[in-house]
Amino acid sequence: MAVPVFCNSCLCEPRSPTPRFHLTSCGHVLCEICLQKGKKDECLVCRAPCRTLVLSKQTSPDIQILFMGIDVLCKKYSKEISQVSEFQEKHRKNLLTYYKQKIAKLEESLKKVTQQIQQIQCMKPPEKTTPIPFSSTSRNSFSIPSRKQNLYSSSSLHSSRPSTSET
């Protein structure tokens, strides 16, 4: 059911022969008779400067919607809202599926790499320290043994020459 249209000044409703109604830019509806009584470019109801638009079947849908019943609007827009909601939900599900698959692949890769690391750690021989040989160019250099070597041999720091106490 459409909203009844009436003049906001004289409160007349459309009748036969129907006077044309106008919508002001300030939001008032005036019949043609009242519109002629007022000043040009001024609303007869609120006295604000305004423009007017003739209400007819050719009026833009944006204006016609103002006079549509709420029940009709609800039915119209609930269908559109449902379509939009279903469309967006479908796309959210697709995106969620994509990310779930991506996560599953990454978790599988992580699992494989973790297994490889564990295998490498099991196969790795215990850490060995290799002594650094003295070269002819580094006669005066000393090699500092690691802590493990210190535990096993305290004489590794002594040079090959006997100390003064030994001679």
Give an overview in words.
- This is RN212 ligase.
- This protein is mainly alpha-helical.
- It has 2 domains: 1-68, Herpes Virus-1; 69-123.
- Helices cover 42% and strands 6% of the residues.
- The protein has helices at 32-37, 61-64, 70-123, 147-152, and strands spanning 21-24, 29-31, 52-54.
- A 3-stranded antiparallel beta sheet has the order 2-1-3.
- The N and C termini lie far apart (124 Å).
- 5% of the residues are buried.
- Residues 147-160 have low confidence and may be disordered.
In a few lines, what is going on in this structure?
This protein is mainly alpha-helical.
CATH topology of the largest domain: Herpes Virus-1
Low-confidence stretches: 147-160
Largest sheet: 3 strands, antiparallel
Q: From N to C, what is the helix and strand string?
A: EEHEHHH
What CATH architecture label of the largest domain applies?
A: 2-Layer Sandwich
Question: What structural category do the secondary elements indicate?
Answer: mainly alpha
The rounded Rg comes to: 47 Å
What form results from the Cα inertia axes?
A: rod-shaped
The overall average pLDDT, rounded, is: 78
Termini, distance in Å? 124 Å
Provide the domain count. Answer: 2
How do the strands of the widest beta sheet line up side by side? 2-1-3
Fraction in helix? 40-55%
Total number of strands: 3
Number of discrete helical segments: 4
- Strand proportion, as a percent range, falls in 5-15%
- CATH domain class name of the largest domain: Alpha Beta
Domain RING-type: 7-47
Keywords: Coiled coil, Ligase, Meiosis, Metal-binding, Zinc, Zinc-finger
Coiled coil: 96-123
Pfam families: zf-RING_5
